Amino acid sequence: VGTTSSVWSWAVADGIADAERTCVAGSHFGGHAALLAAARQPDRFKCVAALAPVTDLPALFATADYDLSKSPTRAALLLARIGAADPSGIAVEQSPVNVAARIKQPVLLQWDPVYADTPADQTARMADALARAGNPAQRVGDPAAAAGKTRSALTLERINALVDFVDARIGASR
Questions:
Q1: Which of 158, 97, 95, 107 is nearest to 128 (CA)?
Q2: d(CA 38, CA 50)
């Protein structure tokens, strides 16, 4: 999140980005960072888009795919990425699902079966938390609707939804 803030400051100061027309986006842990950046710095971003975001760290680490006891190396890397020594050290506010009420910007949440290592319920949990906070997200990529679609069709659906979402919030590029 600190890197996102630093890049935003640099881009605005150098005239590369218009402070009134920026959105933050990312996928997987980048989606996690985008959602946290929107919660922590709501005045900076006009919208947020997250593809298969990690939104609830304790719930993620409780899944079989992320059982940290199976791989000490993976555990160390993931925990270092979020700044915790062990899973018990994960602060509540490090999970976007727990700070959803602070996100005031429009949010696009996308799920994609290619990101199978981010369970679909991570996106669903965030959507529910945002709805409870009065900021329902636009959602793309329902797991049930993905069945039978080609990879290309799913990618095109996601890209078109992202472009339409950003254009509606900050306008087409000038």
A1: 97
A2: 11
